[in-house]
Amino acid sequence: MRFFIAALFLYVLLSSTAAYDPLDPNGNITIKWDIMSWTPDGYVAVVTMNNFQMFRHIMSPGWTLGWTWAKKEVIWTMVGSQTTEQGDCSKFKGNIPHCCKKTPTVVDLLPGVPYNQQFSNCCKGGVLAAWGQDPVASVSAFQVSVGQAGTTNKTVKLPKNFTLLGPGPGYTCGPAKIVPSTNFLTPDRRRKTQALMTWNVTCTYSQFLARKHPSCCVSFSSFYNETITSCPSCACGCENKHKCIKPESKLLSVVGVNTPRKDNTPLLQCTHHMCPVRVHWHVKVNYKDYWRAKIAITNFNYRLNYTQWTLVVQHPNLNNVTQVFSFDYKPLVPYGSINDTGMFYGMKFYNDLLMEAGQFGNVQSEVLLQKDKDTFTFKEGWAFPRKVYFNGEECMLPPPESYPFLPNSAPQSRAFLTTFIFCVAFVFLTMM
Ligand SMILES: *[C@@H]1O[C@H](CO)[C@@H](O)[C@H](O)[C@H]1NC(C)=O
Ligand SMILES: *[C@@H]1O[C@H](CO)[C@@H](O)[C@H](O)[C@H]1NC(C)=O
Ligand SMILES: *[C@@H]1O[C@H](CO)[C@@H](O)[C@H](O)[C@H]1NC(C)=O
Ligand SMILES: *[C@@H]1O[C@H](CO)[C@@H](O)[C@H](O)[C@H]1NC(C)=O
Ligand SMILES: *[C@@H]1O[C@H](CO)[C@@H](O)[C@H](O)[C@H]1NC(C)=O
Ligand SMILES: *[C@@H]1O[C@H](CO)[C@@H](O)[C@H](O)[C@H]1NC(C)=O
Ligand SMILES: *[C@@H]1O[C@H](CO)[C@@H](O)[C@H](O)[C@H]1NC(C)=O
Ligand SMILES: *[C@@H]1O[C@H](CO)[C@@H](O)[C@H](O)[C@H]1NC(C)=O
């Protein structure tokens, strides 16, 4: 129990101090403004959002972008997106701006809008794929025509206080910075043109800002021990336990019960962990030179289909992945040399949709790994992942002393204890 509390303490401490993600240290969303032309009272800019995060995407209902104008700017027109509110444009006669708010809030258009309202890379309902999964779909763009603004690169004022919701909280954006002007190729690719001025804004994600509790948990089992180590109880918080639904409940046959809510409130199946997602890792087979693990992801939310889901696993043997069945796999090498992290995701049109809770709400795969003679062991829980992320959110692991142990190996292994004490001591030392 003491170790569990220590682990929890460590977890809270690390997630609160981590300004960046250790498994994706360069991950960010960059918002780039390219001024394409000056107008009599302002400029026309193309705003491009690039999701440079390897395994975190922005799911439906999509991103919301906001900022504060530096002066009295207004938005005359937008192509490929819109503001949620027009604001007070009563000062204007004749031509009425699209938005007069000091802090406009912009959302993407839905797919299928008329052609003349579209812009390249627009109109995806705000969905941005993870860069590691689909770089082409990780871009979103729109055009904005700004009035009552500076009309030269000396007089224009950069917007301030950028905010990005994706769709919930978690992103923090830095200030806009003037960067070298973007170069563009003409459609025939024979001529290069250049933006008149460019600025960038970088936004990074922190799970700690996004939510109080984890949103997924991990359970373990193995062929060598009958124990199934389940997810920690209340891993995702039990405050809403009274609202959960039993799988046999009649409420589930009510029409519209699965309809997603605007604020994405989940409708969870009752479990002791109360997580919307559980990842199960089963150590399945031991061969002479290889071993095999089975991975199952289960959705317990009746109101959400996970599109383009991702699963990131950190395990020292992932440098010798031989085969991955029924999922796509990509090694992530965040630090160049340490190859212990990889990303699993669904195969397009096969299992890239993790369906709402119920009969079909799970996806499964197996992975075949070659044993590294120097390090491989079934002892001390070595065969279980060190970290697991679902959709870019770190999942809660069971406490180490509860892992299924190889018969005859000491349950609370010395190695685990030593590392743990070392970690705790280290944290205390760095805090002083
Ligand atoms: C944003 O991500 C890109 C791609 O990983 C990286 O090149 C760039 O340096 C990052 N920007 C910041 C400010 O971290
Ligand atoms: C600005 O953002 C773009 C992506 O939109 C990126 O390619 C470029 O490297 C960024 N520039 C700087 C200086 O960060
Ligand atoms: C502004 O434009 C002038 C020429 O039009 C150019 O020399 C200068 O570098 C530009 N400044 C910025 C900050 O883009
Ligand atoms: C930045 O924007 C947020 C949300 O729109 C607002 O709460 C905050 O007060 C703003 N900060 C400044 C300095 O304008
Ligand atoms: C999930 O997707 C399936 C198939 O596209 C659809 O029938 C179902 O209504 C969706 N559920 C939710 C909660 O959106
Ligand atoms: C990392 O390991 C994978 C096998 O899982 C291998 O395909 C890849 O080449 C390795 N990458 C590096 C940089 O060592
Ligand atoms: C495992 O991978 C590492 C580097 O990724 C390589 O040096 C080593 O030979 C591999 N081991 C086996 C048993 O293939
Ligand atoms: C299986 O693992 C558990 C720890 O989770 C341990 O208490 C038990 O002794 C192990 N079973 C055997 C047969 O070793």
Question: Which short descriptors sum up this protein?
Answer:
432 residues, mainly beta, Immunoglobulin-like, 2 domains, 7-stranded antiparallel sheet, 6-stranded mixed sheet, 3 helices, elongated, binds 2-acetamido-2-deoxy-beta-D-glucopyranose, COBRA-like protein, GPI-anchor, transmembrane helix
Care to describe what's here?
The structure is a single chain. The chain is mostly beta strands. It has 2 domains: 22-209, Immunoglobulin-like, CATH 2.60.40.290; 212-247 and 266-408, Immunoglobulin-like. Helices cover 9% and strands 34% of the residues. It contains 3 helices and 26 strands. It has helices at residues 2-17, 207-210, 414-431; strands at 29-39, 42-51, 64-68, 74-79, 81-83, 105-108, 139-147, 160-165, 171-173, 177-179, 183-185, 192-194, 197-205, 216-222, 225-229, 277-286, 290-299, 306-307, 310-314, 321-325, 327-332, 341-346, 353-354, 362-370, 387-390, 393-394. Strands 1, 2, 4, 7, 9, 10 and 13 form a 7-stranded antiparallel sheet that branches. The longest helix is centred in the C-terminal third of the chain and has 18 residues, at 414-431. It starts with a helix and ends with a helix. The relative contact order is 0.14. Residues 1-19 and 410-432 have low confidence and may be disordered. One 2-acetamido-2-deoxy-beta-D-glucopyranose is lined by residues 66, 68, 103, 161, 163. One 2-acetamido-2-deoxy-beta-D-glucopyranose (NAG) binds next to strand 1 and strand 2.
